[in-house]
Design brief:
single chain; mainly beta; Methylamine Dehydrogenase, Chain H; Immunoglobulin-like; 2 domains; four-stranded antiparallel sheet; 9% helix; globular
Length: 479
């Protein structure tokens, strides 16, 4: 009897362990949100449970207006149309965690959607018939709903707006700023708002590229309650013409990610994009990749973890990557190898255009949830093949054991581009040696860009991080 009881307890214990192991097994979920029209899903809710967007009128991506503003349940792929009349243009750019409140544009003007109805928002004087949108929503310490947006009446006139609980804030004065050598911007627009409504990401968009070395280019800056900081940094050869392209603000208002694009002052200077991560609290610009690497930082979660796409144009035919230990790993490889998503699920979104181009099925990335575990992307050039990957852990965690420790980019590296040494990570000091082992330069670092007049040759750079007591070496070639 005693032996039987022990045996039964052993069996129960084994069953419990099997169940526990099953519960601990990390598996992801891949949701194909294929649409029959030219739908484009722009953004996720903070928790990743909802997505929002619209589709292009008549399936033409070149048309200037949208119809059928929609939200999607990212667990089921179900799409909810927010306008029944296809002749009424509307689009959604923000949705809450419950899928009950969306914001964007209706009749091409700023509006929000709640309880099955669109509600138009008041416009400033002189902008009654302007085209505009609500681009982001936050909630302040008083529980007020803060919406920000922008409108324009022509290519040379635009304004930024803020609404509090649906009422136009006529006292709102954003701190208009440009770099000292620029003329006033021709278009002003909002690009992001933190969830606590304390951090704004704003662009002052100029319409033309520089002519004969002129400096009429976009300025992108962060505005907090008491400061305004321009993100662009001078790069030798691009001192008057560098600008941020496609910037995105994390939901907690701590990070901005994007590319700094430089058009050289002379043809010899060339042009290209440098991928960056900007930490707002410290005004620290971290260079992630030089233009030679061809990678574009496209979205960031609340921990500062970045997802990339191979650079080049606005087409979805770009391959997404994750950076681990200074190595770029295709996102598809991580999803299949580490999170239980099958290649067959991903292959289901493949289009003929993607297959013929030899591109990744996942195409490009649009957004990531605050915790980094839900990723939104599009796998087809007609913008029909939207998908969502729900992960059991961040793709930056190769080990399936969940680790939510905020990541700081302490992987030190150096690149060379356009007479600049470009530093990645929190570098405090560098030493530069030639191939004879002679120290040719040393510098305490205060900027991610270090102009240099080194002669052509191969150099070894020793990079120091005092906080982590890290020393790393990089090799650069100057020619």
């Amino acid at each position: 009897m005693k032996k039987t009881l022990i045996l039964l307890l052993h069996i129960v214990n084994c069953l419990f362990c099997i169940e526990l192991c099953a519960e601990e097994k990390y598996t992801g979920k891949f949701v194909n949100m294929t649409a029959t029209d030219a739908a484009e899903v722009y953004a996720l809710s903070e928790n990743g449970q909802w997505a929002c967007g619209a589709h292009f009128a008549n399936g033409d991506m070149n048309q200037a207006f949208y119809v059928y503003g929609s939200i999607w349940n990212t667990q089921t792929g179900e799409r909810i149309y927010l306008e029944e009349d296809p002749t009424i243009p509307c689009a959604t750019y923000w949705v809450n965690n419950e899928g009950t409140f969306a914001a964007g544009a209706h009749y091409d003007q700023p509006a929000y959607y709640i309880n099955g109805l669109w509600h138009s928002l008041e416009m400033p004087r002189g902008y009654d018939n302007a085209v505009g949108e609500v681009s982001a929503v936050g909630f302040n310490d008083n529980g007020d709903t803060i919406m920000i947006g922008w409108a324009y009446t022509a290519a040379t006139r635009g304004t930024i707006m803020r609404w509090i609980n649906g009422e136009l804030d006529k006292e709102f004065k954003y701190r208009n700023t440009v770099r000292e050598w620029e003329t006033k911007a021709e278009m002003e627009r909002t690009r992001g708002l933190s969830k606590d409504a304390k951090v704004y990401l704003i662009s002052l968009d100029h319409c033309l590229l520089p002519v004969n070395g002129g400096g009429n280019l976009p300025t992108t800056y962060v505005m907090t309650e008491d400061t305004t900081i321009i993100i662009e940094r001078s790069i030798k050869g691009y001192d008057r013409v560098s600008f941020v392209s496609g910037a995105e603000l994390s939901r907690n208002g701590k990070w901005v990610v994007g590319s700094i694009y430089g058009v050289g002052l002379t043809p010899e200077d060339g042009e290209g994009a440098i991928s960056f991560l900007y930490e707002i609290e410290t005004d620290r610009l971290q260079i992630l990749e030089g233009r030679e690497q061809g990678m574009m930082a496209c979205t960031v979660d609340d921990y500062g973890r970045v997802l990339y796409c191979r650079g080049g144009g606005g087409t979805p035919l770009r391959k997404p990557f994750v950076k681990r230990e200074n190595e770029f790993i295709p996102l598809e490889e991580i999803l299949v190898k580490y999170d239980g998503i099958t290649a067959e699920q991903i292959d289901a979104i493949m289009t003929d255009e993607v297959e013929e181009a030899g591109e990744d099925d996942l195409g490009t990335l649009y957004d990531v949830s605050a915790d980094g575990r839900t990723i939104l992307g599009c796998g087809g050039p007609a913008k029909k093949y939207n998908w969502v990957a729900h992960l059991s852990h961040s793709v930056h965690d190769m080990d399936p054991n969940v680790n939510d420790t905020p990541i700081s980019y302490n992987n030190l590296a150096a690149f060379y581009s356009a007479d600049n040494i470009i530093l990645s990570g929190m570098v405090d000091k560098i030493e530069i040696y030639d191939l004879k082992g002679s120290l040719v330069m040393q510098e305490n670092i205060s900027s991610a860009f270090l102009p240099t007049n080194l002669k052509n040759g191969i150099y070894v750079i020793k990079l120091y991080n005092y906080k982590t007591n890290t020393i790393t070496t990089s090799k650069i070639v100057i020619k």
